[in-house]
Amino acid sequence: MLVDYVEGGRYEELTKRIHSQIDDLVKSDPTAFYTYDEYTDACSALDEVVSLRAKSIKGQLDGTIPSTAEGQKDDSSCLIDASDIDTSVMGTMNMK
Description:
Blueprint (H helix, E strand, L loop, with lengths): L1 H6 L2 H19 L7 H27 L6 H6 L22
């Protein structure tokens, strides 16, 4: 179901709707903790995480990716590479 949600475009529709509702507010918020550019970078990173996670789930369901931690440890060659994603741009919520 998650794969259909992501690949079927419902996730993209949802994020577009949310952006249309809040982007201008984020841009003009005088009390913002992050800049608008930081916000858009975080949104892009989240979109990439969701996309790659959906690919991973799809692979685990169709058997092309091991679905257990042990199986993934034994054969990591088919795992989804997310090493290019800098999740720190999504914020830390003041956690270190």
